[in-house]
Amino acid sequence: MNGQRTKTTARLLAGLLLTVPLLAGASTLERVRSSNTLNLGYLPEFAPFSYKEGDKVQGYAIGLCEKIADKVKAELGLPELQVRYQPVTTADEISAVSSGKVDILCTPTPRTLERRKSVSYSVPIYTAGLSVVVHQDAPAPLLEVLNGKVAHTGPTWRATINHGLTNQTYVTTKGGVTEAWIRQQMRLLGVVATLITVDTTAAGLELVAEGKADAMFSERMMLRNLLDNHYPTGNLVLLERIFEYAPTAMAVPRDDEDFRLLVDNTLSEMYRSGEIEQAYDKYLEGANETTRKLFKVYALP
């Protein structure tokens, strides 16, 4: 009797062990169906794209992700599917997707080759513009350089070593493409300056407001949103110049074309129906003519 029980237990254990790699290698939709849960990752301090007010998670990217969640419910026939919002940080946003902690990163990020080693991306959902904020009392040489008014030998900042870029302190969020871009420009131009990295754009603006940094580089819409809500007196100024543009998208699991196709179908339908433009009107101060042209480019036929 004991021998028979031992054999039965061994077979059950073997069966359980065999299911582990199947679950680990399961597609996103299979995991969602099995757990009856869709995990939406987001950066909680990334307004107007994703942010939390009280108990509610909202923002431009969150609204798009909720449309994707509705598509998943319909595709899987799970009207009672649980949708959970999982906050992540800039340090772990990509690993959260690649490890399966979240099924999609709603907050848009640039599609870099390095990141594509770990994750795939949806069609673009927003074209980011790199801009800069300075204090209203910023020195004229710095303003001239940042506004592109100085004769230049460098490719992007339109400045020479001795015209406003040296002996300055710049700040940006750490670990992102903006930090990499600034370091590259400083190296190309031979600039001797200090670069401070912070966890959030808000923290960088605070350094400029306190006179501890001369300029904060970040995504333009985020900078404008923070200035409007936290610095209405005008002591900080967002310059008009946009240094770089970059299409940004939602990160999804790598090598999962079925889920990526569902996401792209949903977003493309939103582009064609005009729902994306409505989201722009609600969260991003509306779409201009150039943005509307990009809508047609980004939507897959």
UniProtKB/TrEMBL annotation:
From which domain of life does this come? Bacteria
GO BP term, example: amino acid transport
Family listed: Belongs to the bacterial solute-binding protein 3 family.
Please give the InterPro entries that the UniProt record associates with this protein: Bact_solute-bind_prot3, Solute-binding_3/MltF_N
Q: Please indicate if the UniProt record lists Transport as a keyword.
A: yes
Alphabetized, the UniProt keywords read: Signal, Transport
Q: What is this protein called?
A: Glutamate/aspartate import solute-binding protein
> Is Transport found in the keyword set?
yes
This entry carries the following GO cellular component terms, namely: extracellular region; outer membrane-bounded periplasmic space
Domain named Solute-binding protein family 3/N-terminal is located at 37-287
The cross-references to Pfam families, in alphabetical order and at most eight, read: SBP_bac_3 (PF00497)
Supply the PANTHER family for this chain: ABC TRANSPORTER GLUTAMINE-BINDING PROTEIN GLNH, AMINO ACID ABC TRANSPORTER PERMEASE
